[in-house]
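[SOLVED] Need 3D model of a two-part complex

Original post:
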Amino acid sequence: MEGELLEGKCLFMCPLSEQTRRQQQNRLSVFEILPNATSRISSRLLAHEIKAVKEYARPAAGKAIDLNLIRPIDVLLKTIRYLIKSVANRQDKPWAAIYSFVSNRIRAIKQDLTIQRCKGNKAILVLELATRFYLCSELKMVDAPVEEFDPILNKEQLLDAIYKLLELYIDDTANCSNQAEFESYNMLYNLDTEGIKVRAMLMNTYFRESVIFQHALRICKAAWQKNYVRFFKLISKSSYLCKCAVLRHIYRIRREAIQTMNIAYGNRASRFPIEKLAQILQFKECSLAEEFSSAYGIEVTCNQLTFTKKPLIAFQDRRFNTIASTDDDISISAIIAPG
Amino acid sequence: MAFNQSFTQYLGSLDYAINNKDGRKLGQLLSIKDSHIQNPSLKQREDVLQHYICQRFAPPYIDLIADHIKVVAAIHHYDPRHTFDAQLGLLQSFSRVLQSHKDENWAISTMYLLISELTALAFKVYHYTKGKSTDVLEKSAEALMSCFRICAGDSRSSLETSKKWGMLGIVNNLFKIYFKLNKLHLCKPLTRAINSATIKDEFLKSHIVTYRYYVGRKAMFDSQFKEADENLSFAFNHCHTASRKNKRLILMYLLPVKMMIGYIPSNRLLSKYRLTQFLEIASAVKIGNLLKFKEAVEKHEKFLIRCGVYLMLERLKILIYRNLFKKVFLLMRVHQLPISAFVVALRSMQEEDIDADEVECILANLIYTGYVRGYISHQHQKLVVSKQNPFPVPSQVSLR
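Solution:
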């Protein structure tokens, strides 16, 4: 019933035929060329094996699989480690460019992984690194325009990686030392989906002693109970990656909070200090909190908000997805591939 | 069929049942729980038995009986997975039999038995593999859906002979599977189909009770508490008094829903149905004791998670806050209550790390949802409650 397990034969990060082809078509990425190369021709020769990475291409329907173009699991692991340690960490290029390159190459890695139906601990490692990368990207690219960062595509890739990973953990021989961590990300990311609560309760029985899981669960419970104060308080004490995982819910929870406050504090004489709002909802700056409130039609005078119970206007702005307590100057590769 | 009858005699009984259009009898003869399973004459070689079957029956009954023999063989190999696969094959052959019946519906009683046994086998395999083989559940659902389509599509026959009567029995089994798979969104098209059926109130009472039970549970999941109350209450009230086990099951879900609306169950009711685990929970909710509530929930955590109400109980917290804060109001007898009083109240429940900001947040939610009528003044750190009915009765509050 099982298809025969295929094993790729390409031992380079990028199949040689593809290197030649893209070289000729002038389609090498800036990350695949050696610096200070005066002549493109001579530098290309050196780009072999060291920097060229197989790019993602849509699978052509009906085409037979050429094992010479598929990389076996050891090479995939080596490739993704290279991408994280040597590309994602670069300070000399904008993150948008790095993201564009690395996410594409990781997609190709996942493709090879799927074709070979890889299982086992190496596959787990690959998917763990991939998931962490996608999570970091959510935060780093939160303000980026759609041409540079497609949030829907990132979400799709992230969910694909994480679901495959969670399946691999089920195997009895799998190394599950990080499972609690990734179940936490899954729970936080999918906070508002149907069925996540049931899964959370199930996982809770396995990960009672896990600090990271219990913390993530507390965050989720705070969200489910609409306790925005506790929600943001807990987030400020979370790891970088947990913040990344929960990021996409920030806007909605802030909006719900302000809707609630608009009714609960709604009184002509009532004044609410903007600093307090900024603190409670973890805005990076008071000015952002002010902008946020004004955009909803709430009057702000002398740093005080006046809630009037008037219905609020609705809109979505990605600037309001940032959280106060995130450090921008952290080493990405240390986050993604610790140790 | 007796234990010592010959295979020919077994076939004779089948023939008789089919000719007399006796769905129940046919079901019994194809059931894995019937004594005929142990009859040694069924353990003969398959091709030998096939020969006898072909001599006596015409398609599509040949496949039906042959597939049942396969099930029997799998049972004797003690292989749950193979038994399931064989039963699946049997149901598929049965679908062809059902489809061949024009203007007659006597086979739907057979169908109920076959699908119930298929579901039971699927669950057995699923538990045996500790939840890994979801494919048995999915395959069962597919097979059930094709039976459903045959029944639902039977629009030409008269009401008496229509197969539409079989719809609800199938739907209930599908609900069971979808709940197990945690894919509740798949229930929606089925409820739509049933609700638009003209015969929806005329199905078998037992089917309707089961149906309303699942619809109520789904509503509970979707936080539609009024709808959950209506359906679960109907199921509870119309469930046969003799089915103690089923009544208890319905009550397990009805209780949290009722509590959510503001009704506290009586001790008598809880004792009658052996659901005293809810006693402490109910009393904690009533007096607004958050600490007791948390202790009670933790104590019975395994039980509550197993029956799937654990999550529902988290929703009761807001009622506890409401009851606790109302006490504070009654004690202080003023309409401008200091936030600090609520902080003290919660700290006394061992919520040590709670601060004024969080208390304001809880109060804000109570006001927003309508449990408290008033407003918060942040600068004066006070909750100002309305002079008229500041704490409306929970059952009157329309839940968002």
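Edit: Chain A is about 55% helix and 0% strand.
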